[in-house]
Design a protein that fits this description.
alpha+beta; single chain; GMP Synthetase, Chain A, domain 3; 4-stranded mixed β-sheet; 5-stranded mixed β-sheet
């Protein structure tokens, strides 16, 4: 298909629906909220590198201003050893994202342009007394409920096999990771760190994936880019659209899902030029929880992940429930599976374990739940042990999604790893 094969719009006009549609979005690591997640998780990793049993709960807020940018760190940390240099960790993390110029939205490298405020105290003794026990009897760091989800939507596409993930979420996440890659690799040197994606997938009357209906991209760019086109913003926009189509969309979305009726919208307001990022929009840790998980397909308990050590079940139990749900689907017991866990602060065993397969299993949900409980240990200490969570592996999770990722040789994304022994246990 030629580049002109997709309908490309600057201001989107809804097209006729021919089937059921579902949409998911993602944001780049330079989005202000994701910048905050990145800084918070950099602090988690810095603390775990000092003490694997460190207790961390740190939130980040960022805002760029005309004269001076601002990074605020607030939370609680308890560890054995010297605390990290929080200001340096924050500046280094923001700079690694790409915020090294005041002109684009923030220069985190210098106090001349960005102030870092640190407001971090120690963990409450009343929380600690319920959490700081020997590993397997370690209580949950808080009450709450967590959901894990898996499905077979990605398994029909070679480049997505093994992810067991909702397709719209998988594609939107891949698009934002690609937006980051083309900037960092110099493929699109005019691109900036801030950006978003959204993918709408169309299903046929039987619920099978038909095609990609709409792709939406927002990408911050060099304010001087239009000078290459004689100052024409229209020509600038057309160039950005074509470049995004060629170097991002077609590199990410399987060709069989793109047809001539697919709609691509790039920078729907017309321009997204410097300064952007934290200058255009304040950021806060934990504001992209649907982006972090399943793109809205599957429920969410409400807890954020970033800035929290694995004693916080908001994080570790969400990973464990995803791990278990992925095994249920990979074992062929269902084509969709959602697992809910619930905890009470200070108690190791979950209050409840619930399995929902949405009518896609020949077995009852109750029977599968019993198999899940016999195969997986959902105590926080056991989760940390089985998934080897007491390591500095979290910075990479802060952008691009926590799930549907490829487990790394360096121990990253262990909850995405399939354990054949657990598959066998579920099938026993």
């Amino acid at each position: 298909m030629s580049i002109s094969g997709l309908f490309i719009y600057g201001d989107y006009r809804a097209t006729a629906m021919t089937g059921d549609l579902f949409s998911s979005e993602s944001v780049t690591r330079g989005h202000p909220d994701k910048l905050c997640d990145t800084v918070s998780d950099a602090i988690v990793d810095a603390c775990l590198a000092i003490d694997s049993n460190a207790r961390v709960a740190v939130e980040t807020c960022v805002k760029g201003k005309e004269d001076m940018g601002l990074i605020v760190l607030a939370g609680e940390v308890s560890l054995n050893g010297n605390v990290p240099d929080y200001e340096k960790v924050a500046r280094d993390a923001a700079a690694a994202v790409g915020y090294t110029s005041h002109a684009i939205g923030m220069d985190a490298t210098t106090s001349d342009h960005t102030e870092v405020q640190v407001h971090i105290t120690t963990q409450s003794a009343y929380i600690a007394q319920g959490v700081n026990q020997d590993q397997l009897s370690q209580g949950a760091g808080d009450q709450g409920l967590m959901f894990g989800y898996a499905c077979t939507e990605t398994e029909s596409f070679e480049e997505l096999k093994g992810r067991y993930f909702p397709l719209a979420a998988a594609l939107s996440q891949r698009l934002t990771r690609r937006l980051t890659a083309v900037r960092e690799q110099g493929i699109l040197p005019w691109a900036r760190p801030d950006g978003k994606s959204q993918v709408t997938v169309e299903y046929d009357g039987e619920g099978n994936i038909s095609r990609v209906h709409t792709v939406i991209i927002a990408i911050q760019h060099d304010d001087d880019l239009k000078q290459q086109f004689g100052g024409s913003e229209d020509k600038e926009l057309e160039y950005v659209r074509q470049q995004i189509l060629e170097h991002v969309v077609r590199e990410v979305i399987p060709a069989e899902l793109l047809d001539d009726d697919c709609t691509l919208v790039v920078n729907g307001t017309g321009r997204f030029a410097d300064p952007g990022g934290p200058y255009a929009d304040a950021g806060l840790t934990g504001r992209k929880i649907i982006v972090d998980t399943y793109g809205g397909m599957g429920r969410h308990g409400g807890g954020a992940f970033s800035g929290k050590d694995p004693s916080k079940v908001d994080r570790s139990a969400a990973y464990a429930s995803r791990w278990a749900a992925k095994h249920v689907v990979a074992a062929g017991l269902a084509t969709r599976c959602e697992i809910q866990l619930a905890y009470v602060i200070g108690i190791a065993e979950p209050v409840s374990v619930r399995v929902e397969t949405f009518g896609t299993s020949s077995q009852s949900d109750r029977d599968i739940a019993e198999k899940v409980k016999a195969t997986f240990d959902f105590r926080p200490g056991a989760i940390a042990r089985d998934l080897q969570l007491l390591k500095p592996i979290y910075s990479v999770t802060a952008s691009g999604g926590h799930f549907g990722r490829v487990p790394g040789n360096d121990g990253t994304f262990p909850w995405e790893q399939i354990d054949q022994n657990r598959i066998a246990s579920l099938l026993d």
